[in-house]
Design a protein that fits this description.
Strands 1, 2, 3, 4, 5 and 6 form a 6-stranded antiparallel beta sheet that branches. A hairpin with a 7-residue loop joins β1 and β2. The protein contains 3 helices and 6 strands. The longest helix is centred in the middle third of the chain and has 7 residues. It has about 110 residues and is α+β, with helices and mostly antiparallel strands.
Length: about 110
Amino acid sequence: QQYPLVFLQSIVTPELCFVALPVLAVEPKYQLQMEGVDAALLGVSEQPRIGSEVLCLALVTGDEHTPTANLLAPVVVNLQSRLAIQCIHADGWYSHQEPLLLAEERAVAV
């Protein structure tokens, strides 16, 4: 089973595919804050509602032993227009290599 993995695959270059996860699957308290220019390009507010207005995805990197997610620069998709951009959190709250933890590990870490 691949849930909750999301595959972002190019229709122009089919061999180009990125693996991603919804940011809330990685960090349940994730706060999306977009720069004004990015929000304007997508046609959303600077703090759009994840799930109802936008899909917010963290790209997954690393190997099977040390997978990480890029919470610093998520891919944000306007659910109405289907336009997407990769946004960078200028405030630096999140890492581009956030360790992926199982729910049990996350509960112990808190």
